[in-house]
Automatic annotation (TrEMBL):
Signal found in the keyword field: yes
Domain Cadherin-like: 1112-1205
InterPro entries on file: Cadherin_5 (IPR041690), FG-GAP (IPR013517), Int_alpha_beta-p (IPR013519), Integrin_alpha (IPR000413), Integrin_alpha_N (IPR028994), VCBS_dom (IPR010221)
Molecular function GO labels: hydrolase activity
UniProt keywords, alphabetically: Glycoprotein, Hydrolase, Repeat, Signal
One cellular component (GO) term of this entry: integrin complex
Highest taxon listed in the record's lineage: Bacteria
GO annotation (BP), single: cell adhesion
Name recorded for this polypeptide: FG-GAP repeat protein
UniProt-listed Pfam families: Big_9 (PF17963), Cadherin_5 (PF17892), FG-GAP (PF01839)
SUPFAM superfamilies for this protein: Integrin alpha N-terminal domain (SSF69318)
Organism of derivation: Desmonostoc muscorum LEGE 12446
Length: 1231
């Protein structure tokens, strides 16, 4: 039996060895077997380092070949020691190519008897196509290699370049040998391009099979030349499927002697489950292939589809052949699903093994149907582990004749160290597997656990069979840890080779589980005893595939809670998720439980019936967007058949049409107006005091209710960022600014443009083309250099220079000031009543018309977010805040920084370096931990604590690795007139100078949504279920150092829940101003860019949601009555059953009188209003109590507060009479 645990820190040369990366941030560690590239009889390794800088080319990437040998290896091997005899370095070509992102053996593609290599570079720009991607084949040779090999030297005799097709395809994101798919005796290749757009489907993805040949290859091979005879294209199906994000040979899964392929599409949405993911098996054949093959044509005879289970599972994130794990003679498959239950924050991860068979496959295979006979599921262990992040065959590491598996969990923790990472080896066997296998049960007999070394190493991010590198006859493994820090080099990366061994494997049989049922009321928990139906020696180890221990509370997809008790029973708590059930109605819920007999597992289900009861009204602590009905807000639906992603950016638009009511602007960066693909559009919705219906379709904009603003050129992505611009031209009407960060002004590719549209009270047509801006109706602001990305973030800047005109700020996160690549710049454009030309080049800013704010260090990406900061230091001038999401403050990699620039009437130079901020002109706000990404979103917060100074809010995604965000944190920094030091560490926030909010990436001021006189906040968290947004109320009572959003209870704020899983509501958030003219600020944003609002099968049409503000306080002057609309009060309340709420009773205030007026419509309580009349000469605070009823016996009593402000009463002269004696003076007092 093998040891149950192997610590990578124990590798000593006899059991394996460590391979150390070279330079800081190389990120070496993506490794694979290279076959035998030098023909010496020993398998070799290839390791990618995607961020390495060969020949001075930043992030061109390097790959490293380590030769196998029977002479042994030391405990440590430095890649810097490669000299041609022990291996060699393969250098990428151009900056940001990212060569080595994916590496693999290519088999023997040229038929010379020696294995070859393939290397992907998804960021390369072949034939002038930005990010089309390249892949490189390096031929094996027995003649030896020099210590350095430049990919630029490939000439057809030593290898060749495979060029991607279209801009942004990202070909080479995944590469692999394809085995011999066409049966000609020569190995083939497969290359993935997850962002390609086959058949007009944006990012459906393509994969390319290149046939091997003994006839030779030219130096360059264009994937556009595939014609069926030299290979073929495999087209993805639906928009944003990202097929080809992972590709691999599948071995021979159907036993027809031809190698097959597997392709992952982790964002596919099978069976209506958004982002459940799909994988596609394409059978090999010697009957030939056409030039293109549509995955939609898979029918069981030519291959089949493997469907993920639940929304956001993202199965197919990694795919691989599993070898023959069950010893039946057919190759098997393994599919990783590391996002399993991500939106319930489980993310333990799952992997699925699909057994090969000669009995045929149906056109569709659902992973839910795996039952032990056709495959099985492998369950991860702990929340956040992300097992299945990488999967691979392990060869036969224990030499028992059965192929084994290896699974990486790059975020597993160990001994309180975060993200050390683990990998898991599962031994193959012929005795069968149950329907499920828990990685927690690995004990040495059925496999073992491989522990990473240090926190944030992320070991297991890449795993692979290594062949037999030491020539001992046993297969070896390679494991990558791209964030490891060998030899003191931060994130240089490490790889670990684990040698194979001989060990017998005992067998075991899986247990049997039985289905159960239970019934309860919507407010009543119930205990479920089901183990008596099964066996008294079995233990429950998982619920819905998530590992549980005694006391664990699991949140089901319904929102109900399930807890495992010490006596083996489960307690089911409906957790207020079925409150909408009326008396006599019932709902259902279900879950699966997994039992364990020591090592093997099996699973059964429990079905529950939940009966409804009547609930009293409640103050809103959780608001469902599905309940918007026109009276409390409304839905703004994107347009069908566009997939424009409306809601990707949202903002208050000020009052652009001058009617006295605030308007909205919604960005749709993926729209294609006027036939220009991805030119982008923005939609202006006019505010109105005439009311809104429950839904508003953007297709209905006609000039009277709003209008469409059309982008100009293909791929401009106008609407990526939108904002009110204030009144920049001094005409008394607000303007708009729209960013198009991919626009190419003055021939500068992706320099970016921003567009200012002037407000007008003369009206707008139904559509407005940005190409029509001519200086009188607005103007264009042009970016400077290629790939600056100006307009990625835009905002009104307030009046930063104190001249009485509002100003603008534009972020260009890709700019490279002072020679610092991607340090980022931001540009301030001053407002003026002198007029603007049709075009303004940012290169013309000279201090009098605006100025440039330069980022500091390469890669900081300052300007990723920009905003007005209000007046944070109380000097009467508006200030600015700029986020630099990738900055490294205090040595913390990508902790992020934000920069506050103070406004001033003393003028600005043409250039301001953020490095010059010293406390008097602004200050730096430093993020806390590695990968926090603080500054990903920044905003003024208004005055949340009521001290008279504007405050700030900063979003931090709280960790970014492999493209995945964590829950995030938000930081509120209080304004002050006492001054600021040059540096403020967010770790120092203590409640007196600001506070931390435990969630959120996207942040904004919410205005004063509850009408209490204090500004509020809104925080978007789109990665939680359907997505959520959180409103935090302002208060003068102070804040603790930490605010947990789970504590929001209606009195201090509330949560706004999205509708459907995967909607990503909260992707953008903003105050809407007062769009319905009721005197209270409203919210928008709650933008949900992944919505199909009209159910017509379009994946990312998008919706935005407006939530109306409500009233908790009324203010009037002394001796002046005030009207209080009942509906404005009632918006604060909710009824679970949807009953109509009314005010049934109220008390008289102490210092005034109160009447309820039915507005002469006694049958229509929606227009009732209170009249409060303060007592004569009274000023101060007053209040009254009132009762809200649902009409079915449910009531709640609350208090409404009143503020009566003193006034200066005019003096009153009074007649008087005095009596005195003759000639006797009298004194008359005048006061």
């Amino acid at each position: 039996m093998a040891n149950p645990v192997l610590n990578l820190s124990e590798l000593n040369g006899s059991n394996g060895f460590v391979i150390n990366g070279i330079d800081a941030r190389d990120y070496s560690g993506g490794g694979s077997s290279a076959g035998d590239i030098n023909g010496d009889g020993f398998d070799d390794l290839i390791i990618g380092a995607v961020r390495a800088d060969p020949n001075g080319q930043n992030s061109a990437g390097e790959s490293y070949v380590v030769f196998g040998s029977s002479s042994g290896f030391g405990a440590q091997f430095n890649l810097s020691s490669l000299n041609g005899s022990n291996g060699f370095v393969i250098n990428g070509i151009d900056e940001d190519d990212f060569s080595g992102y994916s590496v693999s053996s290519a088999g023997d593609i040229n038929g010379d008897g020696i294995d070859d290599l393939i290397i992907g570079a998804s960021g390369a720009d072949p034939n002038g196509q930005y990010d089309a991607g390249e892949s490189y084949v390096v031929f094996g040779s027995s003649s030896g290699f020099d210590a350095q090999f430049n990919l630029s030297s490939l000439n057809g005799s030593n290898g060749f370049v495979i060029n991607g097709i279209d801009e942004d395809d990202g070909s080479g994101i995944s590469v692999s040998s394809a085995g011999d798919i066409n049966g000609d005796g020569i190995d083939d290749l497969i290359i993935g391009a997850g962002d390609a757009d086959p058949n007009g489907q944006n990012s459906a993805g393509e994969s390319y099979v290149v046939f091997g040949s003994s006839s030779g290859f030219g130096a360059q091979f264009n994937l556009s030349s595939l014609n069926g005879s030299n290979g073929f294209v495999i087209n993805g199906i639906d928009r944003f499927d990202f097929s080809g994000i992972s590709v691999s040979s599948a071995g021979d899964i159907n036993g027809d002697s031809f190698d097959d392929l597997i392709i992952g599409a982790y964002r596919a949405s099978p069976n209506g489950q958004n982002n459940a993911g799909s994988s596609y098996v394409v059978f090999g054949s010697n009957s030939g292939f056409g030039a293109s093959f549509n995955l939609s044509s898979l029918n069981g005879s030519n291959g089949f589809v493997i469907n993920g289970i639940d929304a956001d599972d993202r199965s197919g994130s990694s795919v691989s052949s599993a070898g023959d794990i069950n010893g039946d003679g057919f190759d098997d498959l393994i599919i990783g699903e590391f996002h399993y239950e991500f939106y319930d924050r489980a993310v333990a991860g799952k992997s699925y093994v699909v057994f090969g068979s000669s009995s045929g496959f149906s056109a569709q295979l659902n992973l839910l149907s795996l039952n032990g006979s056709n495959g099985f599921v492998i369950n991860g262990i702990n929340d956040g582990d992300y097992s299945g992040r990488s999967v691979s065959s392990a060869g036969d590491i224990n030499s028992d004749g059965f192929d084994d598996l290896i699974i990486g969990a790059s975020r597993a923790d160990r001994n309180s160290q975060r993200y050390v990472g683990q990998s898991y080896v599962i031994f193959g066997r012929s005795s069968g597997f149950g329907a499920g296998f828990n990685l927690s049960s690995l004990n040495g007999s059925e496999g073992f656990v491989i522990n990473g070394i240090d926190a944030f190493d992320y070991s297991g991010g890449s795993v692979s069979n290594a062949g037999d590198i030491n020539g001992d006859g046993f297969d070896d493994l390679i494991i990558g840890a791209v964030r490891a820090d060998p030899n003191g080099q931060n994130s240089a990366g490490e790889s670990y080779v684990v040698f194979g061994f001989a060990s017998p494997t005992p067998t075991n049989k899986p247990p049997v589980a039985v289905h159960d049922t239970a019934t309860t009321d919507e407010d009543t928990a119930v205990n479920i005893q089901f183990l008596a139906n099964d066996s008294n020696f079995l233990t429950v180890t998982a619920i819905n595939g998530r590992t549980v221990v005694v006391g664990t509370a699991i949140t089901l997809s319904s929102g109900a809670l399930l807890t495992l008790n010490a006596d083996g029973r489960l307690t089911y708590n409906p957790n207020a998720q079925f409150e909408s059930l009326a008396v006599g109605e019932s709902g259902t819920d279900s879950f699966t439980y997994t039992i364990n007999n020591g090592s093997l597992v099996n699973t059964a289900s429990v079905n529950l019936t939940i009966n409804g009861v009547n609930d009293a009204p409640q103050i809103i602590s959780g608001f469902n967007l599905s309940s918007l009905n026109g009276s409390n807000g409304f839905v703004i639906n994107g347009i069908d058949e566009t997939d424009d992603g409306s809601g990707s950016s949202v903002s208050n638009a000020g009052d652009i049409n001058g009617d006295g009511i605030d308007d909205l602007i919604i960005g749709a960066k993926d729209d294609s107006p006027n036939g220009q693909s991805l030119a982008g559009s923005s939609y202006v919705v006019f505010g109105s005091n005439s009311g809104f219906g429950a839904s508003f379709n953007l297709s209905s904009l006609n000039g009277s209710n709003g209008f469409v603003i059309n982008g100009i050129d293909a791929d401009d992505r106008s609407g990526s960022s939108v904002s009110s611009a204030g009144d920049i031209n001094g005409d008394g009407i607000d303007e708009l600014i729209i960013g198009a960060y991919r626009a190419s002004p003055n021939g500068q590719y992706a320099a970016g443009s921003s567009y200012v549209v002037f407000g007008s009270n003369s009206g707008f047509g139904a559509s407005f083309n940005l190409s029509s801006l001519n200086g009188s109706n607005g103007f264009v602001i042009n970016g400077i250099d290629e790939r600056d990305g100006s307009g990625r973030s835009v905002s009104g800047a307030g009046d930063i220079n104190g001249d009485g005109f509002d100003d603008l700020i534009i972020g260009a996160y890709g700019a490279s000031p002072n020679g610092q690549n991607n340090a980022g710049s931001s540009y301030v454009v001053f407002g003026s009543n002198s007029g603007f030309s049709a075009q303004l080049n940012l290169s013309s800013l000279n201090g009098s018309n605006g100025f440039v704010i330069n980022g500091i260090d390469a890669g900081d990406r300052s300007g990723r977010s920009v905003s007005s900061a209000g007046d944070i230091n109380g000097d009467g001038f508006d200030d600015l805040i700029i986020g630099a999401v990738f900055a490294d403050p205090n040595g913390q990699d990508r902790a992020g920084s934000s920069y506050v620039v103070f406004g001033s009437s003393s003028g600005f130079s043409a250039q301001l370096n953020l490095s010059s901020l010293n406390g008097s002109n602004g200050f730096v706000i430093n993020g806390v931990d590695r990968f926090d990404l603080s500054g990903i979103s920044v905003s003024g917060a208004g005055d949340i604590n009521g001290d008279g100074f504007d405050d700030l809010i900063i979003g931090a995604a709280s960790g970014f690795f492999d493209g995945q965000f964590f829950a995030g944190s938000s930081y509120v920094v209080f304004g002050s007139s006492s001054g600021f030091s040059a540096q403020l560490n967010l770790s120092s926030l203590n409640g007196s100078n600001g506070f931390v909010i435990n969630t959120g990436s996207f942040v904004s001021s919410a205005g004063d949504i509850n009408g209490d006189g204090f500004d509020d906040l809104i925080i978007g968290a789109p990665d939680a279920g359907a997505g959520s947004s959180y409103v935090v109320f302002g208060s003068s009572s102070g804040f603790s150092a930490q605010l947990n959003l789970s504590s929001l209870n209606g009195s201090n704020g509330f949560v706004i829940n999205g509708i459907d899983a995967g909607d990503r509501s909260g992707s953008s958030v903003s105050s809407a101003g007062d769009i319905n003219g009721d005197g209270f600020d409203d919210l928008i944003g709650i933008g949900a860019l992944r919505v199909d609002p009209n159910g017509n099968g379009w994946f990312s049409v998008g919706s935005s949601y407006v939530v109306f503000g409500f009233q908790t306080v009324a203010t009037t002057n002394e001796d002046t009555a005030v009207n209080i609309l009942a509906r404005n009060i009632l918006r604060r309340y909710t009824d679970a059953e949807g009953n109509t709420l009314t005010i049934s009773d109220f008390t008289n205030p102490t210092n005034g009188t109160l009447t309820l007026n039915d507005n002469a419509t006694p049958d229509n309580p929606s227009d009732d209003f209170f009249i409060y009349t303060p007592n004569a000469n009274f000023n101060g605070t007053d209040s009254f109590n009132f009762t809200v009823t649902d009409g079915n016996g449910g009531n709640i009593t609350s208090t409404f507060n009143l503020n009566v402000k003193p006034v200066n009463d005019a003096p009153i002269a009074v007649n008087d009479r005095l009596t005195t004696g003759f000639n006797t003076p009298v004194t008359i007092l005048t006061s």
